[in-house]
Amino acid sequence: MTNEHIPFLDLVTVHRELQDELVEVLTTTLKNAGFIGGPMVQGFEKDFERFCEARFCVGLASGTDALRFALIAIGVKSGDIVVTVPNTFIATTEAISQAGARPDFVDIDPRTYTMDPGKLREYIEHTCKWNAKTRQVIHNATGKPVTAVVPVHLYGQMADMDPILDLATQYNLKVVEDACQAQGAEYFSQKDNRWHRAGSMGHAAAFSFYPGKNLGACGEAGAMTTNDEQLAQTCRLLRDHGQSKKYFHDIEGYNGRLDAIQAGFLRVKLRHLEKWNEQRREAAERYDKLFAGAERLVTTPHQPSWARSVYHLYVVQVEDRARLQQKLSDVGIGTGIHYPVALHLTKAYEGLGFKTGDFSVAEKAAAHILSLPMFPGLTVDQQRRVVTEVLKSHSITTTVS
Known about the structure:
Strand 4 (128-131) and strand 5 (136-139) form a beta hairpin. This protein has helices at residues 12-17, 19-32, 39-52, 63-73, 91-98, 117-127, 161-170, 229-239, 260-270, 273-290, 321-330, 360-368, 380-393, and strands spanning 56-60, 81-84, 102-105, 128-131, 136-139, 145-149, 174-178, 186-189, 194-197, 204-208, 222-226, 243-245, 248-249, 307-308, 314-317, 369-372. Strands 1, 2, 3, 4, 5, 6, 7, 10 and 11 form a nine-stranded mixed β-sheet that branches. The protein is of the alpha/beta class. It starts with 11 loop residues before the first helix and ends in an 8-residue tail after the last helix.
C-alpha cells in the first residue's frame, strides 16, 4: 500500500479524458460567437429535462439563481416564511431571503441527514395554525404565512418526499426541491408505486453545476426543472431581465443566464453521468464493506429502501473529527466537512433568534460529520488505504481486505 496523495475530489482526470470533446465545444462557440443562449443552451435544457424526467428545464447561471427564481416563480412574496433544514449550504437560505421570505427550520433525520417529515408536521401543527378561510398556514409567533417548503436532497440522497408532498397538499404549501447535490438520485414513491428522479417531484427544483458536483460545469452554472410550463416561462423571464424579446420587459428580472460554453460542456458531460454515478455507488458499497465491524467508531451513510443515492459525498460520523482529519491530512488523504456549523447558529442568521439546542440532530451532525474521498475513478487500493488510516487513528490494528 503506497503513500500516494489521495485527493478528496479529483477534477483533473475527468477533464483530461474529455479534453477533445470539451475543446470542440469551445472551438465551435468561438467560431459562431454564440456565447449567450442559442442552440447549445437549448440542447442542454432538452437533454437535462429528459434526464430528470421533468417536462421543462431552464438553464441558469448558478444553483442559487435556480432556487431563488423557482421560489419567486411559485409566488413566494416578501414577508412569507419558507421552511427548510439547518444542515445545508447557506445558498439554500440565501435564496429564500433573496426571494423576500424569512427562512425557518425543521430538524433532520439522524440517519439520512435530510428533512424529517415528522418534524415538518410538528412544525406546521404546533408552531403554526391553519386559516381555513385563506387556506394558509400562519406562523404563531410572527403572524406571517408559511407558503413553501424546501427539502434538501443532501450528499446525493433524496429527502423522503411522499410524506413531505402529502403535508404540502394538505396545507396548501409549495415544494421546491433543493437538488443541487443530487443529479440522478432517485426516490421510490409508495403513493405512485414507482421510482422518481430528483427534480421531478416538487412544484420546481434547483440544480447546481458547480465544478465539484456529480455533473459539474467548468465554472458556474445551474438549472431549474419543473412540470409546470408557466413556472418555466416565468424563470426564463427572470433569468434575462424580464425580457419576452429583446428590450421588451414583461417583468423586472435579473441577469441569471447560463452561458453557451458552460451549457456545451455540461451537455458533453451529461452523456457520462449515469456511468459516473454508478462508479460512485460502487465506491460507496466498497467503503461500507471495508468499514464493516467498525460501527462503534465510524457511522457510515444510511441508504433507506426508498432511496438510490448518487453519493455526491461519502459522509461518516466520528467522535474526534478534528484529530482524525488532521491525521488523514498528515498522511496525504484529503477530506472535507459539509457542514461544520448548522445554519441557525451561523453568524449570518443571528438576527433570527435561534439558539444552541433548537435543532439538536443537525447540531450533532455538524460536530461529527466528515466527508471522505469520493469521485469516479476512486480505486479499491485508495479506499483500502483511507479506511486503514481511519481505523489506525482509533488505535485499531486491522487488516483491510
